[in-house]
Predict the structure.
Amino acid sequence: MRTFSRRNALRLGAAATAAPFLPLRAQDAGEKQLGIALLGLGDYATKQLGPALKKTTNAKLTGIITGSPDKVPQWQEDYEIPDGNVYDYKNLEKIADNKDIDVIYVVTPTALHPEFTIRALAAGKHVICEKPMAPKPEDCTRMIQAAAEAKKTLQIGYRLHWDPFHLKLMEAIKTKEFGDWRSIDAADAGRMTNFTGHNAWRVNKNLGVAGALYDLGVYAVQACLYSAQEHPIRVTARSWTERKMEFSEVPEHWEWELEFASGRKAKGFASYGKEGNHIRVETEKGQIQIEPAYGYTGQKGSTPAGPMDFQHVHQQRLQIEGQVKAILSGEPSKVPGEMGRRDIQVIRGIMESAETGKAYEFGKFEY
């Protein structure tokens, strides 16, 4: 059985049992704040990451990097960002001399992640890269190597690793609180009706790569993997499209079945045309489920012991605080670049199986 390494399992267990949804105190990280620059000022940066950085205790938004100069004045006003901390995509390298900025958070369409991550690392900055990490595993490897060469950290924006509902699921599986798992069913899907504005890149093959599989499917793939606590050996998948005019470049729907060495299976689904938002894990003593599962708030969960009684948290705030704490302490990240590459390996396997109509056999996973 190809299982997660002991190092990763211990890290996951510590994360799940250390009440990570409690606010991180600045003194826990040596009372130091790191300056963060957001690269890409789209919908997610504007509505989620920016507001989160107003609340983080060990990090502060000190810079912006954008290809949209019309957005700059509002960001400067809202976050008190000086002119000297504003950059565009062409002069990104100049950020190397800016002592106010320690971390660059890359928040662009997926296809642009490798270029900007590597340039940010070359400028001597730590990087948080939004998920999914990159189009291909080879891109992920280049990003990981760039971090090693720069002696900086590379972390992925997997916010649910700080969400108490998902942490409870991870802990229960790891400790076998309800016995071993028997089957897994994960879905993240929603019907897209607006194909303009911040949605336009999602159905563009050059920027969004494979549509819902990358944008939403990464959550379902992650859920399958941290529920299984082992690597898959093969996958069988298919994709199809109903609204052919709107989805001329990427499929509308994706479904897959991961198989593990034990013979157990995990089903996954991602779509821009149908609804779905859950992770359900059948165990020896009953079902663990979170439904809805992947939103910024609103999770509802239960185990064979009863409802998950957790308060909702500001996921992005806790994510950033946790990632900055890892940088300040020198501790391993819960969500390193290697994890992002593993997930892209699985996603590319899903694509290959859907394209060929045959099962795809996974090779070696490094993480």
